[in-house]
Amino acid sequence: MGLLIEGEWHDKWYDTSGDGRFKREEASFRDWLSADGGPGPDGQRGYRAEPGRYRLYVSYACPWAHRTLIVRALKGLDDLLPVSVVHWRMREHGWTFEPGPGVGPEPVMGARYLHQLYTRARPGMTGRVTVPLLWDQQTDSIVNNESSEIIRMLNTAYDGLGAKPGDFYPGPLRARIDTVNERVYHTVNNGVYRAGFATTQEAYEEAVLPLFETLDWLEQQLSGRDWLVGDAMTEADIRLFTTLIRFDPVYHGHFKCNLRRIADYPALHAFTARMMGVPGIRDTVHFDHIKRHYYQSHTTINPTGVVPVGPEQPF
Ligand SMILES: N[C@@H](CCC(=O)N[C@@H](CS)C(=O)NCC(=O)O)C(=O)O
């Protein structure tokens, strides 16, 4: 675990020394991929989608990267947008391309570490080195490393190039999707991290209690209906799913989010099973990477690196 400071890698854990609270940093690369290469919704620099030109870097362990893998799968982008997968263990060098099951050699520059791609794109950069990452192989630059934006781009950018139909952020539902996303992001997606990385009792409880309030609310929302917004899957469902699928195997134990399990919530459990049943999604879920990543990378939380055998996997 570490970060780049003026282009140099420093092995440094998250700084919670002030008040014990984990604060997630804003992603550093925010340009936009689209069908016509025009500017993004807020005027960001545009890149034109072309078959094979871009590469998505992910960790199978990471819930944020997982969103992008799901949209890539649902939109049928396998041949249009190649993927590189990092090793699950993230320690003193951050994410690496050390060989392992499912981990490919890095094809652009034969990088050993993900931070080499960041400094290739922006020498002298200061900031965290995170996945997912959308790389432009033509200009050797990083288009974007914010998953919520990458999934919006993949939703439409390849539509004229053979992507499968499917709109996970449809115009009429956007306001409702945004509202659900906002609550789920703060209290669930990032809530589990705020609980797990907290270094004071107060900061931990401040995250865990709202997390379970939102899970209770989601349980009601999903009782008697299949999807969070409207009557088809939207990005709100995808964003919730990547946290729920990791919850019982990892967050419940490792991050101390243990008031209840997802298995104790009938509607949330059924929702998770429903998502797993959607063609293409199951292949994006790699429990071996997920469990080993968390239990072997966060040595401040689990110094022995021992990975629990359970729980039994219901999916
Ligand atoms: N805002 C980013 C967050 C990505 C993120 O934090 N990814 C984690 C992996 S789950 C990471 O790479 N962490 C490395 C670090 O923080 O140094 C997104 O949603 O894309």
UniProtKB/TrEMBL annotation:
Query: What Pfam families does its record include?
Result: GST_C_2 (PF13410), GST_N_2 (PF13409)
- PROSITE patterns from the xrefs? GST_CTER (PS50405)
> Is the Transferase keyword given for this protein?
yes
The site annotation (Lowers pKa of active site Cys) covers Y251, Y294
InterPro entries cross-referenced by the UniProt entry: Glutathione-S-Trfase_C-like, Glutathione-S-Trfase_C_sf, Glutathione_S-Trfase, Glutathione_S-Trfase_N, GST_Omega-like_C, GST_Omega/GSH, Thioredoxin-like_sf
Q: Which GO terms describe its molecular function?
A: glutathione transferase activity
Q: Which keywords has UniProt assigned to this entry?
A: Transferase
This protein's GO cellular component annotations are: cytoplasm
Q: What is this protein called?
A: Glutathione S-transferase family protein
To which species is this protein native? Answer: Luteimonas wenzhouensis
